[in-house]
Amino acid sequence: MRRRVVVTGAGVISSIATGREEFWDALQAMRSGAKVVELDRYGSIGAFPAPEDDGAEERFGRKNARRMDRAGRLGAVAAALALEDAGDLGLASERIGCAIGSAHGGADTTHEAYETFFERGADRMSPFAVPLGLPNTAASAVARQHALHGPSTSIGTACAAGSDAIGAAFRLVRDGYADAMVAGGADAAITPFLIAGYKKLGALSPGLGDPLTLSRPFDRARDGFVMGEGAGILVLEDRERAEARGARILAEVSGFGQSCDAGHLTDPDETGAGPARAVRLALADAGLEPSQIGYVNAHATSTPAGDIAELRALAAAGLSGAAISSTKSLHGHALGAAGGIEAVAALMALVRGVLPGGANLDDPETDPPADLLREPRPAKVDAVLSNSFGFGGHNAAVVFTRA
Q: How many independent structural domains does the chain possess?
């Protein structure tokens, strides 16, 4: 028998705030975390960096902090916040697992290792270059720092990774393989090499002008995404156990859907057919009709092709009537962390009865028509959807419902 799965804790570290409530307050205030960042050998770029002092050393000690990549530190801190938010789970560590998504894993470590190798030679490389540079660096850090001995997995489906990780954790709890899971995403890819690569690809905004206005999801003037970093982590629990211990339940995870475009290396299917299929699967998993979704936290990254494809996908899935926004306009595109960070934004709309707005939406797309939010809107909704899509055609959709 499938168990019901609820969210009892959430932690965020992002460019706009650290902590669930602080993050929500920043979204409601429409406060942007964008700034100009100077990168060695690259120059200036508009980006959404998380705080330089990520709090890992204070929480875990200097030695432990130094044995984590930047993405691992962000993930471990966000997980600590989520676990504190959830309270005492009252479970053996073997029944608590983790699923953490990341697009670039130990990007900071890898960049430094290459730089050291080519400039100073092989003998000067750090012995931690490989273990901290692996794609699972964030999942490993979360599990180690919080002694999680249950199922552990690292998801690498590019920018869909955070939502895919939540979906994987949801299924593990639902099917009884774990009683609780720490799940979400963490990424720290604001490095010279990766910024140069994304810009050469043509995916990044050229970065001209005020950094606060560069990220413009669904606006006709959008010209590419703006890189962010951070982590968003949820604590998922079996509902019966959560209720038995008197936990405060933030929301229920009711459905999850996945699909793959299996087409272009980077560009989405312009028809939106693949994402629409993932959304329909998530709705079917939740047992909901499209009309029951009151809010969609869109993946919309501010790219010309991606945003319009998502609007077409939502229309094809029957969600043209739902309120839609992309909070990336405020905290940037955190790649593999996006699904985790934005899951918190989506479920907080259920908790607080306010739908988050999207900034810089001066000339919104109108074909297909959609209810695109320019600012926060008070509304009591019973179900929300959070979308994430990634290079390689990966599509993921998560449905949260009112507890």
A: 2
Q: 86 and 208 in one domain?
A: yes
Question: Which residue's structure tokens are 């006709």?
Answer: 220
pTM (two decimals) = 0.97
3 state DSSP class of 149? coil
Q: Which CATH number fits the domain that encloses residue 52?
A: 3.40.47.10
Rounded Cα distance between 203 and 197, Å, is 9
**Is residue 134 within 8 Å of 217, Cβ to Cβ?**
no
Q: Let me know whether 196 and 99 are in one domain.
A: yes
SS3 180: strand
Active site residues: 159, 299, 333
- Condensed to tens digits (0 to 9), the pLDDT of residues 174-185 reads 999 999 999 999
Report if residue 249 sits inside a domain: no
For residue 207, pLDDT over 90 is answered with no
User: Contact at 8 Å (CB) between 223 and 238?
Assistant: no
Residue 13 lies in a domain: yes
Same domain membership, residue 12 and residue 147: yes
**Quick count: other Cβ atoms within 10 Å of Cβ 263?**
13
Asked if 293 contacts 383 with a C-beta cutoff of 8 angstroms, the reply is yes
| Phi and psi torsions of 218, nearest 5° | 70, 0
Amino acid at 331: H
